[in-house]
């Protein structure tokens, strides 16, 4: 993970995900590429001639420049190689383009201003082909040597996420493959032991555990496991339910992305 792409926006988790991205860069001797997208495609009801939007644009640009100055001041004090791109337009298209030659994309869990679950993270979860690290606002960074929990149900998505996380898992103090008994969707395609054997070929030992679903949701059980195991991060596949509407996520993915207990590394 030598090429780390950080999405920059003025939301509650910017400080946390910047620290997580810096932690990744230090752990792998990587380059931190900061991407700041400034959207100007605003529509104001009743503003048929765009006069209000025209007045708004200078303020948006000023706010973006102020945020960049604050972030660059912080980065100059860090011992990490970094670069900055400030681009006009929606973040989604810019992140997808830049992610093509990135090893991991670091994003936040909240929308700016509204604090609603991140629409960018939701859209990236099913469109991105690069691993994504979702960082909640309460995180203090990313302990690359800490404990890791991998959500395992034997699916292709879980397998892709496991492979994507290999560089981090190789550094982890402990790795747990957690399977949820009673999870909707039928039998596992691959047993957990297959995941463990794959990790062992890369010199990574792991613990296989099974948890009962009970009355809670799969997302709730995984969150409890992550907290109980003092996980530095959770690895999971991103599941899309609809080919017609890619951005509509499966329930487990949607629930965990909306309220991540710890940083989540996911891959579709």
């Amino acid at each position: 993970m030598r090429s780390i792409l950080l999405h920059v926006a003025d939301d509650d988790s910017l400080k946390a995900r910047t620290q997580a991205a810096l932690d990744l860069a230090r752990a792998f001797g990587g380059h931190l590429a900061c991407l700041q997208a400034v959207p100007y495609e605003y529509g104001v009801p009743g503003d048929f001639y765009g006069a209000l939007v025209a007045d708004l644009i200078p303020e948006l640009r000023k706010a973006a420049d102020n945020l960049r100055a604050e972030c660059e001041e912080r980065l100059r004090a860090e011992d990490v190689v970094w670069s900055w791109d400030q681009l006009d337009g929606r973040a989604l298209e810019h992140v997808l383009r830049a992610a093509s030659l990135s090893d991991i994309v670091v994003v936040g869990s909240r929308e700016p201003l509204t604090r609603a679950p991140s629409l960018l993270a939701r859209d990236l979860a099913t469109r991105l082909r690069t691993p994504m690290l979702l960082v909640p606002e309460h995180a203090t960074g990313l302990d690359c040597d800490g404990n890791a929990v991998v959500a395992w149900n034997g699916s292709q998505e879980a397998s892709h996420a496991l492979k994507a996380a290999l560089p981090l898992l190789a550094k982890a103090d402990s790795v747990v493959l957690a399977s949820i008994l009673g999870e909707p969707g039928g039998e596992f395609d691959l047993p957990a032991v297959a995941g463990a054997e794959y990790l062992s070929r890369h010199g990574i030992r792991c613990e296989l555990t099974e948890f009962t679903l009970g009355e809670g949701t799969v997302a709730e059980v995984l969150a409890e496991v992550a907290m109980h195991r003092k996980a530095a991060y959770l690895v999971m596949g991103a599941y899309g339910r609809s080919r017609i509407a890619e951005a509509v996520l499966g329930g487990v993915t949607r629930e965990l992305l909306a309220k991540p207990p710890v940083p989540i590394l996911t891959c579709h």
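The radius of gyration is 19 Å. Residues 43-49, 241-249 have pLDDT under 50 and may be disordered.
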